[in-house]
Specification:
- This protein has 607 residues and is of the alpha+beta class.
- It has three domains: 200 residues, 4-Layer Sandwich (Aldehyde Ferredoxin Oxidoreductase,  A, domain 1); 184 residues, Aldehyde Ferredoxin Oxidoreductase Protein, subunit A, domain 2 (Orthogonal Bundle); 146 residues, Aldehyde Ferredoxin Oxidoreductase Protein, subunit A, domain 3, CATH 1.10.599.10.
- Helices cover 39% and strands 14% of the residues.
- It has 25 helices and 19 strands.
- Helix 11 runs parallel beside helix 13.
- The longest helix is centred in the last third of the chain and has 21 residues.
- 62% of the residues are buried.
Length: 607
């Protein structure tokens, strides 16, 4: 077997209770690396075009990469993939950090594959190579925090144990729920939590003490040294850089100054009070410390505390930039302490913050447009700027209480139900993140073409367009944006398959990743081979989505972003120009109308 892998996966049939160790296919590891690529290949091998999200055959796969658990910068990531997302209808996927991925490796497995549905609630416990399904009836209904506390000491070694679990919202099959690990880390998007909830699987506990070994330790150590130097010297990832100093919320003022900070359900792109919810203000008023995932030198996580007042939250973590935007400017709300509270509630219940906040903002506009009758709200004053209503909406959604049952549909189905589908700011049913694409052309093209829907990390063009890394691009220009979008999408696919954090791409390039992975695995890799691997992963995901019925029609943005110019601020008058870029994107991809050609599939070994 290649270095950096355990060489073993665990298959769990929740219907029968059978657990089986299966060898990791070495050729599969070479071709797809691990993480997202491995998960997608396992789904593809059992793919069924008529799959439904809560079918017993909907596979749920937790997969590490070769970098996971090694002394590679940010080698703490893992991916979760499911055959079909309950939120988007695409293949579902999510990525998380913390320590769960490394501890799965240390417990003896590269991946865990779940199929079937348990008759009663269960959790899976893996401790140093021994796996067992256990009764979770007493845990069903508990919050993420309560379950994590309950199970962290189950194997008597809490320092080497990590818990991934779902909260009540996922048990209630809300389609935008995540799978949480280590309380505050989450594979948040595409409704993976609801799939886990449908299987009556409450948690996966991993405890491990056996380290995996790289193929060439000395070579890996040298290549890691070079990469670490680049990370430390980088203005974004270094010890004095923006991510360590202010967390991801450093982007609040940056994007607002560009006129690309989405406001009031993307009606506007500039929020005059943005500084009051910025990373700088978070540090000044509420920061109590910093936290990092396993093996991370960047340490972008925030520890926060609101000691008193109506939004008091003690000893919490976050919020991230996306969460601040979506409950803040996007809901017309300024108060940062309330946003910390909103983040905490979502973590506790297991809700994806981007989709939850996007749905609330959509509901606020529906109410103010007269689309939702007052009697439907049952006293909930869902209007832009109402903090209390925003916070109430979160717990009501988690339990489908009152109007929360409508919010639990997500913004796409909510807006359709009340006759205004154009007010849902989604792509492929996934709520958009915190970058208005009207003044940033590349991110709009990425949103439109991303396989899992409205997703910024699928191809983070913000790096060159706003941050100027690895080079500065004019965000308002469409020149060369299709090529850059493709490059960054395939790079992200490779990074997510490797088991490292996307934030390292601010400082590292393909040669650094390929060099470290080559030393770790013993597989001959260079920049071109690694990028081709990423392209294969991107195309495999697209191929399955095509078989689900997705094509050119879904590769677009909400009409507001194509037809309604930014009304005021630094980007006044701008529109997204995705329609002018999409054909060139397809040409460069080797796709026709959103579908890979037979020639492209053969080139990538997919046909």
């Amino acid at each position: 077997m290649l270095g950096a892998y355990t060489g073993k996966m665990l298959e769990v049939d929740l219907g029968s209770g059978k657990l089986s160790d299966v060898p990791l296919d070495e050729e599969m590891a070479k071709t797809y690396l691990g993480g997202k690529g491995l998960g997608l290949k396992l789904v593809y091998d059992e793919f069924r075009p008529d799959m439904q999200p809560f079918d017993p055959d909907n596979l749920l796969i937790f997969a590490t990469g070769p970098a996971t658990g090694l002394k590679i910068p940010t080698g703490g990531r893992y991916n979760i993939v499911c055959s079909k997302s309950p939120q988007t209808g695409t293949v579902g996927s999510g990525n998380s950090g913390g320590k769960w991925g490394p501890y799965l490796k240390f417990a003896g497995y590269d991946a865990v594959l779940f199929r079937g549905i348990s008759k009663t609630p269960v959790y899976l416990n893996i401790a140093d190579g021994k796996a067992e399904l256990r009764d979770a009836s007493d845990l069903w209904g508990l919050t993420v925090f309560a379950v994590t506390d309950e199970l962290s000491e189950i194997n008597g070694n809490p320092k080497k144990t990590s818990v991934a679990c779902i909260g009540p919202a996922a048990e209630n099959l809300i389609p935008f729920t995540g799978i949480m690990n280590d309380k505050y880390r989450t594979a948040g998007r595409t409704g993976l939590g609801a799939v886990m909830g449908s299987k009556k699987l409450k948690a996966v506990v991993v405890t491990g003490s056996k380290r995996v070994e790289p193929a060439n330790p000395d070579l890996l150590k040298e290549r890691v040294r070079v990469s670490m130097q680049k990370i430390r010297e980088n203005p974004v990832t270094g010890p004095k850089g923006g991510l360590h100093t202010y967390g991801t919320a450093v982007l609040v003022n940056i994007l607002n100054e560009h006129g690309a900070y989405p406001t009031r359900n993307f009606r506007e792109a500039y929020f005059p009070e943005a500084d009051e919810q910025s990373g700088e203000t978070l540090v000044e008023k509420y920061l109590t410390g910093r936290s990092g995932c396993w093996g991370c030198p960047i340490i972008c996580g925030r520890k926060s505390d609101v000691p008193e007042g109506p939004y008091s939250v003690r000893d919490s973590e976050g919020p991230e930039y996306e969460t601040i935007f979506v409950f803040g400017s996007n809901c017309g709300i300024t108060e940062l302490d309330a946003l910390i509270k909103a983040n905490h509630l979502c973590d506790e219940f297991g809700l994806d913050t981007i989709s939850m906040g996007g749905t609330i903002a959509c509901a606020m506009e529906l109410v103010e447009s007269g689309k939702i009758p007052e009697e439907k709200l049952q006293g909930l004053n869902l209007r832009f700027g109402d903090v209390g209503a925003m916070l109430d909406a979160i717990w009501r959604t988690a339990y489908k209480a009152g109007f929360g049952a409508d919010l639990a549909l997500g913004s796409k189905k909510l807006a359709e139900k009340y006759g205004a589908p154009e007010l849902s700011m989604t792509v492929k049913g996934l709520e958009l993140p915190a970058y208005d694409p009207r003044p940033i052309q590349g991110i709009g093209l990425n949103y439109a073409t991303a396989n899992r829907g409205g997703d910024h990390v699928y191809g983070y063009t913000i790096s060159p367009e706003i941050l100027g890394l690895p080079e500065k691009l004019d965000p308002a220009s469409i020149e060369d944006k299709p090529r850059w979008t493709i490059l960054l999408q395939d790079l992200a696919s490779a990074v997510n398959s490797a088991g490292v954090c996307l934030f390292t791409t601010f400082a590292l390039g393909l040669p650094e990743y390929a060099g470290m992975l080559e030393a770790a695995t013993g597989q001959a890799l260079d920049a071109d081979k690694l990028l081709k691997l990423g392209e294969r992963v991107t195309n495999l995901e697209r191929l399955m989505n095509n078989m689900y019925g997705f094509d050119r029609k879904q590769d677009t943005l909400p009409k507001r972003l194509l037809k309604e110019p930014v009304p005021f601020g630094p980007a006044k008058g701008q529109l997204s120009r995705v329609p002018e870029m999409i054909d060139e994107y397809y040409r460069l991809r080797g796709w026709v109308d959103g579908k890979p050609t037979e020639e492209k599939l053969k080139e990538l070994g997919l046909a």
